[in-house]
Design brief:
- The protein contains nine helices and 36 strands.
- The strands form nine sheets. Strands 1-36-35-34 form a four-stranded antiparallel sheet. A four-stranded antiparallel sheet has the order 2-3-4-5, with no helix packed on it. A four-stranded antiparallel sheet has the order 6-7-8-9, with no helix packed on it.
- β8 and β9 form a beta hairpin.
- α4 crosses α5.
- It is globular.
- The two termini are about 30 Å apart.
């Protein structure tokens, strides 16, 4: 532990609690910038603050730099910003497992050469309170790239998300547990869980004033919610099949839903009354978007077409043809004059909404395009595809600007398929990994099952055994590597990444671990505290 960490640990509990809670604020408000920076870049302080007061209190300490009476140097400011970013990106991991602090910081910050950061990481490398995997190179998403924060709490696939107009809250929908969750986007804290649907929730939209939200479900209904209290205000019934999408008009007074019953419905959001039913598609309606002026809407369908509607009369104005497979999504540009559609035919198309003319076809995806969104300036759009990529497009020319490689997960109906097997050096035991989320150890003489190792919550992809035969490491689609004591069958440590781990291997030294993940990263880690791992038989 660092000198500061040792000193804090030596204080009586009351003094230590006060120091951890208030001392950074005192330094910042008193203009003692060097002292403030020294504490916030000390691994011992960071570890102790996390342990006693939690990850959010630690994150907020870094915000105090803004109130300091003396300006931080450029290097200090950047170091604090990066350390805070690394902690924030790791918050969902640290909330459940504080022992991953050292590994998460090393994995996200090792490439940054600032002396404050490198000094803190040297302290982190000395952490010996329990077994852990130490990254030997930066192997996680860096502190200044990708997602800002990860919110956890759902127990299955998240199917939709909407952000409130003020940006302070977001609502997510979950397919399998039939709930929605409201989140504080600043702290990542779950504020409320909305229950009431009796089947998968497929879509959610937030009203322009942020006070209400509307959800759609496979239970054939929509529900209107009070976003402040989480109370269900109304249930909208009328569709005869799953509701696939919902959009709220700019004035918040009406909403339009789309359904597998081949129709769209316009609703009065105050009374919950159905105003109109829009018919014309001859297959399931998959998406709907409302123009900025609220006067027209565009729907997408499995009949390979889009339709433009007059929202006041419910009249079909135009049918847009050109896709040669299911149309999955549609977005309208901020000016309302163009729209972009996505399709299973692997393309996107840009349309003139006034004439219904196809302006451009965007090609480049190698599988179905599932969703599309247009930037607020209308100049760029982003698409997602089953080819595991996101693409950014220039809407004026249709030129592909950038491709992002996403997750490479898949789902299979098999629940017991063995995905990997390893045999211990003495040949007496073997360990198998399976799609049923478990590992099993076997006696190779009798092939009797010895133990079942549980702890992963997704399919297993690989397993490796240390040369001494006492320890195993498993890789999984749940984004983790886990270390197992083969004597007891207990999970003794875990390391979390950003995406599924697909392979892992242990070097002959018994402590160096190499793993590969779905983003293409190769992780080099070191098994620390290995002597503490097993009990000699």
């Amino acid at each position: 532990m660092s000198e500061l960490g040792v000193w804090l640990a030596q204080q009586c509990q009351e003094d230590r609690d006060l120091l951890l809670k208030y001392q950074p604020k005192r330094f910042a408000k008193g203009g003692k910038v060097d002292r403030y920076c020294a504490w916030l870049t000390d691994f011992g302080f960071i570890e102790m603050k996390l342990d006693f007061l939690g990850v959010q209190a630690l994150i907020e300490d870094f915000d105090l730099a803004r109130v300091s009476d003396v300006l931080l140097s450029e290097g200090q400011a950047e170091s604090l910003r990066l350390i805070q970013g690394a902690i924030r990106k790791s918050a969902h991991v640290l909330d459940r497992d504080k022992t991953q602090l050292a590994g998460q910081l090393l994995g996200r910050l090792m490439d940054f050469e600032m002396p404050e950061i490198q000094g803190m990481l040297e302290q982190a490398k000395q952490w010996k309170d329990s077994l852990w995997l130490r990254p030997l190179k930066a192997n996680l998403e860096r502190a200044n790239e990708g997602a800002w924060r990860t919110l956890t709490g759902h127990t299955n696939s998240v199917t939709a998300v909407a952000i409130a107009p003020d940006g302070k809250t977001a609502i997510s929908a979950l397919s399998e547990d039939e709930t929605l969750k409201i989140w504080d986007t600043e702290t990542g804290r779950e504020l409320k869980t909305l229950t009431g649907h009796i089947n998968s929730v497929t879509a959610v939209a937030i009203a322009p004033d942020g006070k209400t939200a509307i959800s759609a479900s496979d239970d054939k209904t929509l529900k209107i919610w009070d976003t402040e209290t989480g109370r269900k205000l109304k249930t909208l019934t009328g569709h005869t099949n799953s509701v696939t999408a919902v959009a709220i008009a700019p004035d918040g007074k009406t909403a339009i839903s789309a359904s597998y019953d081949n129709t769209l419905k316009i609703w009065d959001t105050e009374t919950g009354r159905e105003l109109k039913t829009l018919t014309g598609h001859n297959d399931s309606v998959t998406a709907v978007a409302i123009a900025p002026d609220g006067k027209t809407a565009i729907s997408a369908s499995y009949d390979n077409t889009l339709k433009i509607w007059d929202t006041e009369t419910g009249r079909e104005l135009k049918t847009l043809t050109g896709h040669n497979d299911l149309v999955t999504a549609v977005a309208i540009a901020p000016g309302g004059k163009t729209a972009i559609s996505a399709s299973w035919d692997k393309t996107l198309k840009i349309w003139d909404t006034e004439t219904g003319t196809e302006l451009l076809t965007l090609t480049g995806h190698t599988s179905s395009v599932t969703t599309v969104a247009i930037a607020p300036n209308g100049r760029t759009a982003i698409s997602a595809s089953d080819d595991y990529t996101l693409k950014i497009w220039e809407t004026e020319t249709g030129r592909e600007l950038k491709t992002f490689i996403g997750h490479k997960d898949w789902v299979t109906d098999h629940t017991t398929l063995v995905t990997a097997v390893a045999i211990a050096p003495d040949g007496k035991t073997a360990i198998s990994a399976s799609e049923d989320h478990t590992l099993k150890t076997w006696d190779t003489q009798t092939w009797r099952e010895l133990k079942t190792l549980t702890g992963h919550n997704n399919w297993l992809t690989a397993v490796a055994i240390t040369p001494d035969g006492k320890t195993a490491i498993s890789a999984s689609g749940d984004h983790t590597l886990k270390i197992w004591d083969l004597f007891s069958g207990e999970e003794v440590a875990s390391f979390s990444g950003e995406t599924s781990f697909y392979c892992c291997a242990i070097a002959p030294d018994g402590v160096t671990v190499v793993a590969g993940d779905g983003s293409g990263r190769v992780h080099f880690l070191r098994l620390e505290g290995v002597k503490q791992l097993t009990v000699d038989s």
